[in-house]
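Researcher: Sequence recovery benchmark, item below. Answer with residues only.
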């Protein structure tokens, strides 16, 4: 932004509240303001900036560490110029104002505003994203979080099987496949698994389209001598393992649904881009 700015606003991002500091073009503090993390709080802050600039949004720029979030979206929706900066780089600017190490929201907001005023080249202008891009980003984060939760449950199940039913881990070293969960539900203990018939195993493998194992091979592994445990131990541990299965199935299903939604959205974006190119060529 090469044009002359009249106001520089620094925002220190918080959870329940955000702290803002407004400076004029000479670095003089105009005001400090606390912003409530709510729709009303952000709307009031944008109205305050509107009144401050008399509707001239190009006369004001906002500095904030995070390049995204509700407050950034609210400012961009009101056409304000928003600039973000790496937190570590902002720490260096903070050292110019104070050597105190304690966290101070009011001071951090002041540092952000003053740094934008003097060293705008160190900041990155935040641009509003296309709604489809925002949705893809959110879906990707959701899928990643679901993957973390799924791996955590899988690891718990793996540890339980090592304690009383390691034969199942020979069939699937990482127990993250639905067919193995179905097998565990059908025969939660080694003693019951050893009694499964070839026909029942064949039905299970066919239902889940498992071709790398034959019913005979699975039956042989399940018939192996179980671990020598105290009476009742296998039954007790199996109850814990069975309690994990509904959670595993839900996480697996949700992750699959998110992946399908993401792919559909990407296909839609690709088709829209192709249509735009055809229109441009014409």
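Model:
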């Amino acid at each position: 932004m090469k044009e002359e700015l009249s106001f520089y606003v620094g925002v220190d991002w918080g959870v329940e509240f955000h702290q803002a500091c407004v400076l004029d073009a000479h670095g003089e503090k105009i005001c400090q303001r606390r912003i409530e993390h709510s729709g009303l709080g952000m709307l009031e802050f944008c109205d305050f900036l509107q009144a401050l600039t008399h509707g001239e949004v190009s006369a004001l720029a906002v500095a904030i560490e995070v390049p995204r979030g509700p407050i950034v979206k609210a400012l961009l929706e009101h056409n304000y110029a928003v600039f973000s900066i790496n937190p570590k780089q902002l720490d260096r600017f903070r050292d110019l104002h104070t050597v105190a190490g304690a966290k101070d929201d009011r001071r951090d907001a002041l540092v952000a505003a003053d740094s934008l005023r003097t060293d705008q080249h160190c900041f990155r202008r935040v641009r509003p994203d296309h709604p489809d891009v925002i949705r893809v980003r959110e879906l990707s984060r959701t899928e990643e979080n679901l993957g973390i939760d799924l791996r955590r449950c899988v690891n718990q199940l793996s540890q339980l099987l090592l304690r009383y039913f390691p034969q199942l881990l020979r069939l699937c070293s990482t127990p993250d496949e639905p067919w193995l969960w179905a097998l565990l539900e059908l025969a939660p203990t080694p003693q019951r698994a050893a009694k499964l018939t070839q026909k029942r195993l064949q039905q299970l493998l066919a239902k889940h389209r498992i071709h790398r194992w034959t019913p005979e091979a699975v039956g042989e592994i399940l018939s192996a001598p179980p671990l020598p445990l105290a009476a009742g131990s296998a039954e007790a541990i199996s109850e814990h393992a069975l309690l994990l299965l509904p959670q595993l199935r839900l996480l697996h299903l949700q992750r699959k649904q998110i992946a399908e939604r993401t792919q559909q959205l990407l296909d839609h974006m690709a088709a829209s881009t192709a249509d735009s190119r055809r229109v441009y060529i014409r």
